[in-house]
């Protein structure tokens, strides 16, 4: 039992490092994309419009998943 706990701790550390590495690679891949830069700039310039758009898309998604 005592040898299992350090193994689990090491696997958790490895998983968190892998997810961080994956996010970094996604950011690097999308960082040079012109559409992503435009969307980011839009979100920075118009936070209320971005929140409204996210809300509308979220409600539409919930209605779709509702199964009506």
Automatic annotation (TrEMBL):
Keyword Transmembrane helix set for record: yes
Please list where the region (Disordered) is annotated: 1-29
User: Superkingdom, according to UniProt?
Assistant: Bacteria
- Protein keywords: Membrane, Transmembrane, Transmembrane helix
Composition-biased stretches (Low complexity): 10-20
Question: Has keyword Transmembrane?
Answer: yes
Transmembrane portions of the chain: 48-65
Name under which the protein is recorded = Uncharacterized protein
Tell me the organism's taxonomic lineage: Bacteria, Pseudomonadati, Pseudomonadota, Alphaproteobacteria, Sphingomonadales
